[in-house]
């Protein structure tokens, strides 16, 4: 008598489409602790003040953290001149990008990305069963017209990293404004500002004012890059 073979649980088609994220090399023969430049890890290490705060926090691991993250949100609001009530913190900005895509895109919807955009956006969109639409870039720069040409009635979220990784290019404030102005109001514009602090050009803006003036813009930021704290997984969104 042959044993009955029950089918294994099958993930939905979107999950099957996900190509696993492949992190950059973190081992080099003969080198101790090489810096992973593909993730832009800091070669300077974290600030001694952050290390001291981390040690202090270790004495309170028996406590649940403040679920409303009020101290951190207040501090971020003070530093950036923002409204603390409109800030949320997450497990790295990656979790917040995932939350936005989960909240606004479902199976059958489209998530619009730029050709060389942050790879996790594509993974989160597939995990939702959404269709990923990519717009080509010109000279490794996000192309506003190419993005707008690909907006359809099914587009729910448009994500751009500004400045982008790995191209290192940015869209100036006027171009981002033009992109937003031509989007249907029902499309969420996600401005990933993981590298905002590195864009020092006078015509660059991370998107705070665009968020404040509109109900279809989210900006994400992170402590992983400029503060050299990726191990803590602290991101925030406005
Ligand atoms: C463009 C971009 N956005 C977002 C992230 C996510 O960073 P984190 O989840 O550490 O905040 C990264 C990390 O490499 C990135 O390169």
Give a quick set of tags describing it:
238 residues, alpha/beta, seven-stranded mixed sheet, 8 helices, globular, binds pyridoxal-5'-phosphate
Discrete helix count? 8
Rg from Cα: 20 Å
Q: Count the E strands.
A: 7
Question: How big a fraction of the residues is strand?
Answer: 15-25%
Distance from N terminus to C terminus (CA atoms, Å) equals 62 Å
Report the major sheet: 7 strands, mixed
- On the 0-100 scale, what is the average pLDDT? 94
What molecules are bound to this protein? Answer: pyridoxal-5'-phosphate
Described by the principal axes of the CA atoms, the overall outline is globular
Helical proportion, percent range: 25-40%
Low-confidence stretches: none
Reading side by side through the largest sheet, how are the strands ordered?
A: 1-7-6-5-4-2-3
Structural class: alpha/beta
Structure report:
It is built from eight helices and seven strands; from the N terminus they run H-H-H-E-H-E-H-E-H-E-H-E-H-E-E. The chain is α/β, with parallel strands linked by helices and 238 residues long. The chain has a seven-stranded mixed β-sheet. The radius of gyration is 20 Å and the shape is globular. The model has no long low-confidence stretch (mean pLDDT 94). Bound molecules: pyridoxal-5'-phosphate (PLP). Pyridoxal-5'-phosphate binds next to helix 4.
